[in-house]
Amino acid sequence: MTQAQHILSIRTRGQGLHEVTREVAAWVAEQGIGTGLLTVFCQHTSASLTIQENADPDVQVDLEAFFRRLVKEDPSLYRHTMEGPDDMPAHIRGALTDVSLTIPVSGGRLALGTWQGIYLFEHRHRSHMRRLVLHLAGG
Amino acid sequence: MTQAQHILSIRTRGQGLHEVTREVAAWVAEQGIGTGLLTVFCQHTSASLTIQENADPDVQVDLEAFFRRLVKEDPSLYRHTMEGPDDMPAHIRGALTDVSLTIPVSGGRLALGTWQGIYLFEHRHRSHMRRLVLHLAGG
Amino acid sequence: MTQAQHILSIRTRGQGLHEVTREVAAWVAEQGIGTGLLTVFCQHTSASLTIQENADPDVQVDLEAFFRRLVKEDPSLYRHTMEGPDDMPAHIRGALTDVSLTIPVSGGRLALGTWQGIYLFEHRHRSHMRRLVLHLAGG
Questions:
Q1: What is the predicted pLDDT for the residue at C30?
Q2: Tell me, what's the pLDDT at A65?
Q3: Residues contacting residue B27 through CB under 8 Å, at least 6 positions apart
Q4: Contact B87/A82 with Cβ under 8 angstroms?
Q5: B35 interfaces chain A, CB cutoff of 8 Å
Q6: C50 touching chain A per CB within 8 A
């Protein structure tokens, strides 16, 4: 078994889901590892990760809308408000979704289901540069 | 260190928690790996994974009821409705729970706590055949 | 590649976030593994794990308050009440957050972002002794 690591930098364009499947799969394919385990780790607490259906873009719109209803951007609810009304809700949305994903690699490719895509979930309104750490171990 | 992979196919019987601890533990025991890390990955976006108390079956009923209250099956809330009123709620419930679990293996067995069981969480009303990818690395 | 495991026992002091970054990082540093993957696994279903901002303590207060609003400690909502009014809500809060975290190790250190801390999230009101299994694989 061997391993490899890589930093994937992604510029988001505001609140919502940004698909990164292609970038992640391309790096995995370059490593020449047939069977293994990929970890994607998000180095931020106001953006996170999720695996969602990649067929109908409405799924992404509905998911974002659900989180906006569930975690109100209402400063009267929070003490931590100095970084803006969307910052504490971003931390909560991060806790409810995933900071890391582990995905088996089989036949040199991610063993994702047919309709699964990997998404960086931006929780802030403004564009941000986000860093994902990719770790692959296998042989 | 060596590794092994396996596909576990599970037929669910409608919305709710389906315990898979026995099937997962049996496959781990067959691999002859004393110390390692098991990953369970769910290849679907309308079913997911969770670790819950396995002592009182009421816990499973209460958990299912909580998610039904939190994520309404009300088509007026969603754009993505063509696959049925339970499909978009299923994707949201998937985002709130786990698509993958990583569990240490120690002494050849899953290092679960006394009351922990591994559950496949079906979010659709109808029975489905679900595929879990098991990955074990260790020595 | 080699691997190591360790049990980290933590006494919590009631509901809320308890930072364990220092204890986890210290164990990782002792293993002499430059590049690898750390898994933290919580052996309980009424406490869980999360990575959150470690700069402003108000974030922890707001996160706890959000979960208290979202998952009511109201026995009329649950069947599973015999272990106290905070037990079933604890299981639900566990399902919504993380039972395990996987964090890449780079240069012998956890590849956490600048503001990320690892927290044990206690969901019961009383103090508990909690067991975290640490697994590190790398080389």
A1: 97
A2: 98
A3: B6, B8, B134
A4: no
A5: no
A6: yes
Contact across the interface for B56 and C91, Cβ inside 8 Å: no
CB-closest option in C77, C88, C137 to B37: C137
Q: Which residues lie below 8 Å from residue B103, measured CB to CB, with a gap of 6+?
A: B37, B38, B39, B40, B110, B111, B112, B118, C41, C100
Q: Take residue B44 and report the two structure tokens written for it.
A: 């679907």
Count of all residues that appear for chain C in the document? 139
Tell me the nearest-neighbour CA distance from A33 into chain B, angstroms.
Answer: 12
- How far apart are the C-alpha atoms of A137 and B84, rounded to whole Å? 39
Q: Is A64 on the interface with B (CB under 8 A)?
A: no
Q: How far is CA B132 from CA B7, B49, B95, B121, C50, in A?
A: 6, 10, 17, 12, 24
User: pLDDT at position B11, please?
Assistant: 98
Q: Is B14 left (phi over 0), alpha (psi -120 to 50) or beta?
A: left
As a whole number of angstroms, the distance between CA A123 and CA C24 comes to 28
H helix count then E strand count, chain A: 3, 8
Mean pLDDT by 10 residues, chain B (139 residues): 98 97 98 97 98 97 98 98 97 98 98 98 98 98
Mutate to test the interface with C, among B3, B71, B92, B102 (most CBs of C within 10 A): B102
